[in-house]
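Input/output pair, single chain:
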Amino acid sequence: MIRSTRIAAIILFAVGVTLSFQALAGNLTQLIVREPPAPGGPRVALGVEPKTGQRFVQLAGLPAYPTIDVMCDGRRRTLALTRPEEQAYEVSAEIVALMLDAIECRLFIPDHDMTLARQQLWTAWASAARGADAPPVLLGQVVDVIDGNTIRVALGDRAETVRYIGIDTRQTDQSRKAPEPGGRDAAEANRELVARQQVRLELDVLERDRNGHLLAYVYVGPQMVNAELVRRGQAEVLSVPPNMRHRDVLVTLEQEARDQKRGLWADPSEPTTPTSVADVGRLGPSERPGVGPESAWACPALQPVKGSASVYSGGRCIYHVPEGERYGATKPDRCYKSVDDARQDGCQPSRR
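Output:
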């Protein structure tokens, strides 16, 4: 183990791998070290520039090659040597995302082929929003598309019904053979994206719903299908704790779809939600979700979501969740137990 007076934490786990937080030469902070299997062999470190968050792969015990390659789940990318004095190869944000979402990554250096384990990458590079623990990932083949947010996937010797985390699509009423608005489009869009495709299923905290179906973020290649359906306006966000890992991305994409009037939000004859407090006020007290605020700045503990309308929002009701950037600076007009109640009451998500 390399010693330093600036080590913040040492040895988390691993076989043949030392994980540490340690200052390197220059400004890089070393987050994880892959020790060589034999003395004098190559060593790989995953580093971060503290001020910018830029990620690097650093080598030791090898010549300073101009480039090295990394391949994750069959997709190969090239890293360039940008810090020769530290033998550090810069990793772009796109490649970082590829590596974090992959099941396996391999580093290709002349005469060397080294595996970077998924948990190592997450420990080193995952953001605070993602956390340091790599979520479970399953590989499978889509055998049936049931509706806009449900598929059947063959996983080895078994098949599972998989529900998409974080979204809801309007379904076809099978008894009347009449789709809800947007229902048929969502099912067709889902079929277009995943039918007969190999998919990667990223699980979250809660792995199954009450019906026993797997809950997953579904990827085809680098694309998250949950997010793409929301971006197209063919699904709306449905946040159900504790599965909230990609909630911020989904909320942002839904707002974009609303602003661009895509999919569900494109039909002017079908208003999405009331746009102002005046619209919401037409509902009777017993019909409205939510309760009044506890004080000028606070909501009750069981109704923590703040709904607020101001001149800055054009009179529209905007809801703020406790982890949101503007939550503490927002005076609530009404408080809700969930974002679904806030939306039902006519509120739209805050962009911050």
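The chain has three domains: 9-125, 137-265, 277-349. The helical segments are 93-101, 118-125, 183-194, 225-231, 247-259, 277-280, 339-344.
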